[in-house]
Amino acid sequence: MNSSRTITHSAPSSVAATSIVSSRLTVETSSAGFTDITREVAKFLREARAGEGAVTLFIRHTSASLTIQENADPSVLVDLTTALDRAAPEDGGWRHDTEGPDDMPAHIKTMLTQTSLQVPVLNGRLALGTWQAIYLVEHRSRPHRREIVLQFIGATR
What we know:
Elements: E1 19-29, E2 33-36, H1 38-47, E3 50-59, E4 64-70, H2 74-87, H3 103-112, E5 116-122, E6 125-126, E7 132-138, E8 144-156
């Protein structure tokens, strides 16, 4: 049985993708957890003079990841950390522990999440939902310097 619903969409827009603009974002993490990088990505789009297109983010590491998640209630990030820790606990009997007991769990957590994201850009702005933010997720317990490649593909102003 179908419930009643309304479905609408905006009129399509079209632009020629005439530019590719790239940059690297370096983030210093202090320990495991989520770092909101939404403002830095928005700043990159302003500097790139982005119009319509898409921005791709790619993290160049195997023990940290990227995600789009809730930005209003911090308990969401706490619960996500708990879920990842349950999925890949440090005491899981892992063979690979070259850099410590959090080494293999960090690789598993990265595999369960994402190393790249693509976000539409409309009129120079990230087309994120009201409660969405872009996060770097550090899976290691000690500080790291993480590098994210940013690339805008689309029309510039």
